[in-house]
Amino acid sequence: MKTEERSDSTRPAEEFAPPAGRRDRRPDLAAAAVGLLLVAAASAVGWVVQNANGSLQVHWPPLLATWDPHVGPGTPAAVAVAAAVVAYGPGLAERLPWRRLLVAAWAASLAWILSLALIEGWDRGVARRLTTKHEYLRVIDRFEDVPSALRGFTDHILIGPPGNWPAHVAGHPPGATLTFVGLDRIGLGGGAWAGVWCIVLGASGVMAVLIAVRALAGERLARRAAPFLVLAPFAVWTGTSADGYFAGVAAWSIALLALAATARTRLARYAAPGSGVLFGLTCYLSYGLTLIGVLLCAVLLLARTARPVLPFLAGALVAPVAFTVAGFSWWEAYHLLVERYYQGAGGVRPYSYWVWGNLACATLAAGLATVAGLRRAVVAAPGGVRSLLPARGGGAVTGGTCLALLVLAALLAIAAADLSGMSKAETERIWQPFLLWLLPATALLPRRDHRGWLAAQAILALLINHLLWTGW
């Protein structure tokens, strides 16, 4: 499929409208209500379990948070950004030229994330977030000799030996820590610069998703999704956590592959290896983000091409080869991480609760509008799958169907992470790279309801940020 075929904004609106018989908002509200019931059940059961034996290891189940009603310097800005996006976002998304829309979406997302972080104040909300005892900046001085640190990285993963890494350093490949070491080396050391880095890169993920959705499903749907991508409830955890940074890198890998698979321009020559390089880096930022491969495969399937595969694989080898030559073994470290995980909270937290409690966390992070959009994606999926089957002769796939299958690929990656047992709690933060790709499902909601759903998203994020201290 060619980019111009997917991005033509003059196509009939009926192609992008919900299927006949699905225009009533009651099924969408029912889906949102199911999401609320899931959260309520996870909260009620969680309090019982936590009060009984403390095994959940969280203070405000299902979220890793504590009750702390407060306002702060960012409160007026956060409310203003939310009100502006709800009031003007859908209209501007329809009218702005495409490139200006991308920049505006990034700027608005940046304002939303930063204003939410500043509800806690600059020091508590940004500058100190990545300097706590579990975080990356606590070990910067141990990377004076980077090659030596990489060769000995696995020696400090397990709890017990002297000098074991803090939780987040041990829980990730060294690419994450090296990012902050690199910032320190160029004079951007300290928590403030690290926080800004994560916020700026995390906000850029909005542009990446818009580019990918436009390439695969059409410009109209990308425009409809834009305000929802800006007002993502998980922005509460994007500012400031390294997972926001990871989400941005992973999103650009997917966006570049979407361009490589659909474009017929010189850009495609560089997009595929660029996507591979970023995916390889992503795998060295977080072990769990190998599941981004599910979305990358979905891109190729929806574009019906294998053309970018070889240059993508060539780019994807760059990071693994570099780290392996430097003396770091990804597989050895991963197996040690699994052992470390069960040495700590992972060995105490009950799988029987978190296998569904995680989904309640994801519901709060993605928002009820996303739950409603996912309902429509699930309804559209069977027809889309049939149209992709060779036996069907490779029939045409509408933009709405492509979008539905793309977000369901993200849902599949989340399901795999959930069932693995390596994501028990804190998924409101950890799953950001996947949750980002669920938000475009909101484009399937009726246009007339967008402002109401946007308000619901914003209110949810504001309530979480003002009533709870999330610790991230």
Query: What's the N-to-C terminus distance?
Result: 41 Å
On the 0 to 100 scale, the average pLDDT is 92
Shape: globular
**What is the number of beta strands?**
2
- Percent range of helical residues: 55-70%
Which structural class should the secondary elements be placed in?
mainly alpha
Main sheet attributes: strand count, strand direction, barrel closure:
2 strands, antiparallel
Q: Please count the helical segments.
A: 24
Query: In order across it, which strands form the biggest sheet?
Result: 1-2
Beta content comes to: under 5%
Q: Which blocks of ≥5 consecutive residues have pLDDT under 50? A: 1-22
Write the element-wise H/E pattern from the N-terminal end onward. HHHEHHHHHHHHHHHHHHHHHHHHHE
Radius of gyration: 21 Å
